[in-house]
Every structure is written in C-alpha cells, then in structure tokens.
Amino acid sequence: MGRRETSQVAKEKVIELPCLCANVRRAARAITRLYDDALRPSGLRTTQFTLLQTLSLAPGISQKGLARLLEFDSTTLTRTLAHLRSKGWLRSEAGKDRRELRLSLTAAGLDEYKRVVPYWQAAQRRLRRELGEANCKQIGRAAMRAAELTPSRED
Known about the structure:
Number of strands: 3
Distance between the termini: 41 Å
Radius of gyration: 18 Å
CATH class: Mainly Alpha
Helix content: 55-70%
Oligomer: single chain
CATH superfamily: Winged helix-like DNA-binding domain superfamily/Winged helix DNA-binding domain
Largest sheet: 3 strands, antiparallel
Shape: globular
Structural class: mainly alpha
Strand content: 5-15%
C-alpha cells in the first residue's frame, strides 16, 4: 500500500460492523496498541505487564487458573511466563498436587511491576481522557460481564 493509500485509509471513518465480536476485537486491538505505545519506553509489552499486574494481585495462583482468568491460550501463556522467568521476575512452586504449578512474583518481579506502573497509568489516563470516565466505567463493566458469560475452556 502506498503512502497516499495509507493516509486515505487512516482518514476513513470507522464504521460499526454488524458483528459485536468484530467490533470488540477491533477495539481491543486499538486499545492494546495504545497501551503498547505507552509501555514501549519501559521495555515491556502489554501482555507482560498484564501478567506482572495479575501476579501482584493474585500471588500463588495456579498457571491453569491464570490462563482461565486472563483467557490466555496455553502456548501464549507458557511463552510469556518463560520470558518473565528468564528475567528473574517469576517464581514457580509445585502446588498440593505436584502437577499443579503455583506462580508468584519474585522481589525483582514486584520491583519491575512497580517501575512500569507509571507507564501503564499514562495509558489509563489517555483512555479516560479520550473516552470519558463514564464510558470507561461502562466498558469495564460490560467487559467483565461478557467475561462472566463466556464458558471457560477446559485444558
């Protein structure tokens, strides 16, 4: 696509598609780009930050529980956790059932999470500014409700 075609596409109005899934996925990709852009100076991607944030809120969660909570497929989760583990930010321990893996942040992982929070907060502020506080709350509630309605996958 040439420069002229690219700029023309960028100027086109976003149209509402008849499929709710398509509209939500498009919005999710746009919001992820916004967060990735805000997090870029930190060196982390949104997926990595989300795992640090979740593990700071739910220390000792099982890997299977983490996958269900975040709706991550097993391959993506394993790959992203491996990156956190290689940085020394993640601790894994066997659960009551030896097949179960319990995850938590190391002290370095918690420090990394705290270091990156200001970048995440910048993305949060931008979304609130662009969408308005009421819309952000409504979108958040709708997203939570949608997540509750969908059946979780069984591994």
